[in-house]
Write a structure and sequence with these properties.
Radius of gyration: 17 Å
CATH topology: Nucleotidyltransferase, domain 5
CATH class: Alpha Beta
Shape: globular
CATH architecture: 2-Layer Sandwich
Strand content: 5-15%
Order of helices and strands: EEEHHHEHHEHHH
Length: 198
């Protein structure tokens, strides 16, 4: 069992109104190394119909992604779940009957992504463990309980330091699902190393 790092970008924080705009996934082992060294993860920009509403926050902060979602190059929404399950087939094998042998969904505030994915991608959610690894929980303990400064996931150099195998844009990728999963892996590596050192 490893971790399925997972992040979504969506049109609205209200799950009843939200449409998924981007899906990012990457499988690692429990030591945070890719299950397959050749794997570069999955990063899908999902097609939005022209009439789809986006929240004012999304309109202001994710303009580039909204434009990509409305381009002909975006992946049709109906094809996304199949691409996700094929990715799992390729890198973690067929669905495990034993739920404890399935990968654990991991990421920052991943419960929110799980909730939306369970509506749009139920076959994918059936492929994962019943537990979640939410890095936000560790963040809360690190900053609140220990009083340590927050890991700045928008600092690309900091993320690179804790995730040297990742290829990152030096300018960073604010509010990009794939960058967010890389930053979450780096953040967990940071906590593991520094928590044990204190």
């Amino acid at each position: 069992m490893g971790y399925l790092w997972f992040d979504l970008e969506f049109t609205d924080l209200d799950p009843c109104q939200a449409r998924i705009m981007q899906v990012a996934m990457w499988l690692t082992d429990v030591h945070l190394q890719p299950l397959d060294p050749a794997d570069t993860g999955l990063n899908i920009v999902v097609q939005l119909p022209p009439e789809a509403d986006v929240s004012p926050w999304v309109h202001e902060n994710l303009k580039g992604l909204v434009t990509r979602c409305r381009s002909p190059q975006a992946t049709p929404a109906g094809a996304v779940e199949l691409l996700c399950t094929r990715y799992l087939d390729r890198y973690s094998g067929p669905p495990a009957d034993d739920i404890t042998a399935r990968p654990v969904l991991a990421g920052n505030s991943v419960h929110n992504d799980w909730r939306l994915a369970s509506v749009y991608y139920p076959a994918l959610i059936k492929r994962v463990h019943y537990r979640l690894l939410d890095i936000s929980t560790l963040k809360q303990q690190w900053t609140g309980w220990l009083g340590k400064p927050e890991f700045d996931k928008e600092d690309v150099e900091l993320v690179k330091r804790w995730l040297p195998f990742a290829h990152l844009d030096p300018a960073g990728q604010r509010h990009d699902a794939f960058y967010d999963i890389l930053a979450s892996i780096a953040e967990l590596h940071f906590y593991r190393t520094n928590w044990l050192a204190d």
